[in-house]
Every structure is written in structure tokens, then in C-alpha cells.
Amino acid sequence: MITNQELVDRDRRVVWHPCSQMKDHEWLPMIPIRRGEGVWLEDFDGGRYLDAVSSWWVNIFGHANPRIANEIRRQLGELEHVILAGFTHEPVVRLSEMLVAATPPGLTRCFFADNGSSAVEVALKMSFHYWLNQGRTRKTRFITLSNSYHGETLGALAVGDVALYKDTYGPLLLQPITVQSPDCFLREAGSDWREHSTRVFEEMEKCLDEHADETCAVIVEPLVQCAGGMRMYHPEYLRLLRAACDRFGVHLIADEIAVGFGRTGTMFACEQAGISPDFMCLSKGLTGGFLPLSVVLTRDHVYDAFYDDYATLKAFLHSHSYTGNPLGCAAAIATMEIFGDGNVLERNRVLAECMAGAVEELVDHPHVGEIRQHGMILAIEMVKRRAGMEEFPWQERRGLTVYRHGLNNGVLLRPLGNVVYFMPPYVIEEDEIMTMARVAREGISLATAG
Ligand SMILES: *Cc1c(COP(=O)(O)O)cnc(C)c1O
User: Mind giving me the DSSP string for 254-271?
Assistant: First the structure.
């Protein structure tokens, strides 16, 4: 039998972990996971952790979900992979049909990639190339929101705005036009989300008016800027943005990589604004958290702008080796079927209320600046002082204290800076929500004391 310590020792000799300062692991234990079931992860010494962050927001129906696992197993016996240029297979056709049916109206074409960042790259390139094919050669830029996040590859990183990930690579990046995020955390006292998001939209309107000629697309994370600290805004902003993009002849890219598949209460966040984007990027929950896969959905007129005789050289010559992998598609089909069969969104509404109730007592905590929620995403912002929402200095790493308290008490919470959040798999039970919330409350009190 392998023990935690043995695996961690071997790991430290050969593995370089993502998004980590490896030196931290001189004192911060690495957690080796042997198996998962539902919301639980289990280590080699029998320790259990409730996965409150859905393993980086990908898992929606629980670890080792038998239905998804069986679909992958069945597909494994048929076809593991085939080139998708010039060839096709049933899972990719079936999944595309399901996605076209499930997403907002007008999104009729599916272009596959294998991770979220690559889907963002596809959307950026496709938008630029669409305008090029129309002879609009001056359109070379993108508009993005402050504090947004769209992935780590250079194009995706460039259109994001989280300094911690981006600034180091500044010299390598495209220069987008950045406008103020409609994020409601720092709204003026007395105003509500709708008023605030609507007022902030004026800056976007001005920016479009000034830059539409040189702009391919506006890219946004609908309703929640997840990596930017689960900052949230009102759907009215998306409605205004859709109308303005139409007026100014600029594409709208909705990056629903994190918020898609029911996270914000509706199947897709755009539905709450009643809008259809020109491009929708999906990944994370797409395969239920089983396999890497991503897709960009777009509209007929975009597809048609590339559809011509070969010699016109208008084709979209982008690919990834594992584009539309059949195993990933099988996992995604099973995931869509679970949504199709059950009352998933209805049950989530009950769970979302339960999460809100479970942290209610923190509302008056002297170091909690705000508790905010969009459906199955609930975030608690720790502040040094509530007056003026004064932040704890990042060097103090208060969130890390919550993380460590969580691990010591069987809950995987992974705060983003000073923001503690819940984004659990939808199979969580009410008593598990209570456990998750209790450990988070204790962790917050511990982390903000002194
Ligand atoms: C995670 C994420 C991405 C990047 O996806 P990867 O699969 O990690 O490359 C892009 N956009 C948003 C909104 C995300 O949350």
C-alpha cells in the first residue's frame, strides 16, 4: 500500500505543479488523492476532503460519476480518437446537435478544441478572420473588462486582466482596450446591482463609439468574473452590451467556460439577459469534469464568411491534435443527458438557498465585506475593515489560512486571494453544505483574527 508520504516524496522529485510556487511545499503539504466519489476526494491514508471548488470548477455531477464513466468506457471499446479534419464520428455529431439545441438561439455551429484557453484563442482568431474575410482589415483589436480572466495561453492571457497572472508576460502580449468591469463589489452605498452595472456601461458605450472601427470583438465572462475573485454583476449589462455591439458592428464573445452548465442558476448565464452572443466558449463543466474538451459555438453568418472556394484562402485553418476527441464527446453527451433527464437546475435552486442560509451569520462579521451569489457560486469577501472595504495586504495570504484550515477539517476550499467561495458539484447534499459552510466560517474567523 502506498502512503501519502511516499507519493508526495516521489512527486517532489519529478512533478512541477500548475499555478504554484513549488517552494511553498517545503511547509505546505501536498495532498495525494487516491480516489473520488461524489463530492468527496480520498487520500492514501484514508483522509477525506469535500471538494467545495469542483476541482477548479470542472466537476458538476460528482467524482467518478457512474453514468459518465460508463459512457466513456463504452466509447473506449469503439473508438478512442480519430483525426477530425476530413473525418467525423458519431459522438462529435451528436454532441454538436445537443449543444446547438441547448445554447441560446442563433448559435448553430460548433468548433472544437481541447481546453478553455484554446477555445478563447479560437474565438479571437475567428472574429478577427471574419472581419478580414469581409475586407475589414483595420479591425485588429479586442475590448475586454478590467479584472477579467480568459485563460493562460498568450492570446487568452492578453485579453484577461488579472495582474498576478498577466503582468510578468506583458512584453509578449496583444494590447486590448480595457474598460471598467460592471463588478458590483465597490458600488456606491445605496445603489443596487442593476443601477451600478447600468451606470458603468456608459464607459463601454463610449469606448465602442470611439474604437468600433478597429475592434473585432468585446469579450466578457457573463455575470461572474470567476478567477478575478468571483466578482459579480447584473444581467442588464449584457443586454446593453449585446445591443451596442449590434449597433457598432462588433462581435460579442461570451466566455462561459466557468459559468456555463448551470453554474449561475440557468443553463447558460447569457440566458438571464435574454441574449445570444456571436461566439460562446465552453469547457470546464462540458465533460462533467472528466476529460479535457472545449467548444466554440458561433452563428451562420460567421460560418458563411469562411465558406468559399479553396483558392480564396478564406478557410479557418486552425486545429489541435485532439480536436473533438470522441472520449471527451462521450463524456459531454452523458453530462448533457443528465441535465436532460433530471430537475438539475430546480434542485440547484434549493441548494443555492441552502448555501446562502449556511453563511448568513457571517453577514455581520467585522471582516466580511460582502457575501454575494449567482446560483451555485457563492463568494465571501474578507476585508481588513468594512469601512471603505479596505483590503488585507496580499502578502499576508489570509486566504491560505482558510485553505489550510479547510484541509485540516476535511474540506477543499481554495480561496482566490481574500475571497472564500463555494462552487461545489451539484450532487452535494444539504448536510454536506452545512459542513462546508461551518469549516469556511471557522476558517474565516481564524484567518481574520489579529
Ligand atoms: C478556466 C477558464 C478559462 C481557461 O480554461 P483552461 O481550460 O484552464 O485553459 C478561460 N476562461 C474562463 C472564464 C475560465 O474560468
Answer: EE-TTTTTTTTSSSSGGG
Which amino acid residue places its CA nearest to atom 5 of ligand 1? Answer: 116
Q: Is 43's C-beta closer than 6 angstroms to any atom of ligand 1?
A: no
Q: For residue range 277-301, what is the model confidence (pLDDT) as tens digits?
A: 999 999 999 999 999 999 999 999 9
Q: Is the CB of 117 under 6 A from ligand 1?
A: yes
Q: Give the amino acid at 160.
A: G
Domains in the chain, please, with CATH? Answer: 31-64+343-448 (3.90.1150.10), 69-341 (3.40.640.10)
**Tens digit of each residue's pLDDT (9 = 90 or more) over 61-75:** 999 999 999 999 999
Percentage of the chain exceeding pLDDT 70: 100
Q: Could you tell me the distance, in angstroms and rounded to a whole number, from the CA of residue 55 to the centre of ligand 1?
A: 13
Confidence of residue 450 (pLDDT cuts 50, 70, 90): confident
- Model confidence band, residue 168 (pLDDT cutoffs 50, 70, 90): very high
Segment 101-116 mean pLDDT: 98
Enter the DSSP assignment of 393: P
Q: Residue 422's closest CA among 434, 413, 435, 432?
A: 413
pLDDT bucket at 189, cuts 50 / 70 / 90: confident
What is the SS3 assignment for 80-140?
Answer: CCCCCCCCCCHHHHHHHHHHHHHCCCCCCEEEEECCHHHHHHHHHHHHHHHHHHCCCCCCC
- Pairing assessment for the beta strands 33-37 and 40-43 based on DSSP bridges: antiparallel
- Return the CA Rg of the chain: 22
- Rounded distance from Cα 226 to ligand 1 centre (Å): 9
Number of the ligand 1 atom closest to the C-alpha atom of 56: 1
For the chain, what is the mean pLDDT?
A: 97
**What does the block give as the cell for 182?**
460592471
SS (H, E, C) 144-191: EECCCCCCCCHHHHHCCCCHHHHHHHHHHCCCCEEECCCCCCCCCCCC
For 383-401, b/e burial (b = at least 16 CB within 10 A) is bbeeeeeebbeeeebbbeb
Q: Which atom of ligand 1 is nearest to the CA of 259?
A: 13
Ligand 1: residue of 144, 148, 283, 286 to mutate (most ligand atoms within 8 A of CB) is 283
- Cβ–Cβ under 8 Å, residues 156 and 144: no
Distance CA 329, CA 288 (A): 11
Tell me what pLDDT residue 173 has: 97
Half-sphere exposure of 333 (CA within 13 A, CB side): 20
Given CA atoms 433, 437, 438, 440 in this order, what sign does their dihedral have?
A: positive
